[in-house]
């Protein structure tokens, strides 16, 4: 089962990039082969808003599935 979307920071060449990621298997170790990356952002705030949006969108899909 996949995890929720979250923000991960990565330092490259003295600058910080923020990635919106989730684990493909939330019960397994966090490593590159277990990550789904939605995008890379320069701003934590922008990445956080994207993660919140993706999580709310998927929560809405779960509610719709339960209603069927």
What this model shows, in words?
With 68 residues, the chain is α+β, with helices and mostly antiparallel strands. Helix content is 35%, strand content 34%. A hairpin with a 2-residue loop joins strand 1 and strand 2.
Contiguous uncertain segments of 5+ residues = none
Distance between the termini: 21 Å
Largest sheet: 3 strands, antiparallel
By secondary-structure content and strand pairing, the structural class works out as alpha+beta
- Counting structural domains, the number is 1
Percent in strands: 25-35%
Q: What's the SSE pattern?
A: EEEH
Number of strands: 3
Describe the global form.
flat
**What oligomeric assembly is this protein in?**
single chain
Radius of gyration: 14 Å
Instruction: Give me the number of helical elements.
Output: 1
Summarize the amount of helix as a percent range: 25-40%
Mean pLDDT: 90
Q: Report strand order across the widest sheet.
A: 1-2-3
């Amino acid at each position: 089962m996949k995890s929720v979307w979250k923000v991960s920071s990565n330092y490259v060449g003295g600058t910080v990039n923020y990635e919106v990621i989730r684990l493909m298997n939330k019960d397994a170790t966090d490593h590159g082969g277990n990550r789904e990356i939605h995008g890379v952002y320069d701003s934590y705030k922008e990445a956080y808003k994207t993660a919140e949006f993706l999580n709310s969108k998927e929560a809405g899909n779960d509610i719709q599935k339960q209603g069927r």
